[in-house]
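Field reference: sequence -> structure
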Amino acid sequence: MVQNAPEPIGAPLATPDLMALIEAVPSIRAVKEETAPNPQRVGALVQAAGPRLQGVIGGLGGIYLFNELARGATGTMPACQFADVMVRILALVDAGDDAAAREVFRALQPALVLERLYGMTFMKACLQRRGVPMGRVTRMIEPPLDAFDEAELDAVWADLAPHFTVGA
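Structure field:
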């Protein structure tokens, strides 16, 4: 799998360059596309690769999930704090219940927005709330959640918690 990530973590490739890499390395079977505009990039890669790839998936916590699925994405790769919620959404999509999938996604969306803002600090705070024993120290310099952020997370959590299938 190739993760096509933007700077500062990655060095994003344009779709033609990504296709050249895929053709040059036959063992590449999937791509996680995280370069803006993500849904359009997913669609372009799905069209360019055709059956050459087993899957093109979105990233960024799944924030663009439905737009990416409509363009041929085979899934998404979110951070782990809400993986069970994303599995539930994708199971509903697979069952043909788009309305229910979007209802769960609407509960998840504010958390994904906070994740984009605070990154690993937010992810660790969520994992702690879900019972995973860990500190909040991160490798990257990211702002800590202050009292207002924690209050916002409380509000978001109240809507999201009913959709958890693992932990609290």
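Note: The chain has two domains: 1-77, 80-168.
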